[in-house]
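Protein modeling request. Please complete all fields; requests missing the sequence field cannot be processed.
Requester role: graduate student
Desired output: 3D structure, token encoding
Chains: 1
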Amino acid sequence: MRKTDKYRYLLVLMGLVVLHFTVRGRLGDDRIAPDFLLLALLIYTIRAQPGRSAAAGFVIGLLRDALTPASFGAGALAHTLVGYLSSWAKAVFFAENVLVNGCLFFAGTWLRNLIVLVASGRLGGTQLGWELLVWSPIQSATTAAVGIVTLWMFGGWVRVRRAEG
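Delivered output (165 residues):
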């Protein structure tokens, strides 16, 4: 891996974080807008080990929880679990395939929403059903679509490189 690859990789991740705080609010309802922070975490898990991915998820979850103190801790738990599980899933399904990555982004977003809703205890009954069966799949699809476009545009910068030798 060249030294510049590391900086390009970080540039993509930081760009997603900036997009989350600048563009996401203008993309419509928060329930359907793509989650750029979670996408940055999921792209990070492509290269990282499960422990580091869980730690990164915990930090991102705390950042999200600081913005929504009503359910403090639910986001940290959700992002930690999603970071760990997605890194582990990338180790099992190691193919550099757009469909595999799109499914990873979709499943990661939906799982994060499920954990946050259950852990926060904010919704119950039919509202929980609507969130999990309607709004969460829409947000998961938009996040997956943005993730696929990001990997298509910057795929050479973020893909896993094996050591030569």
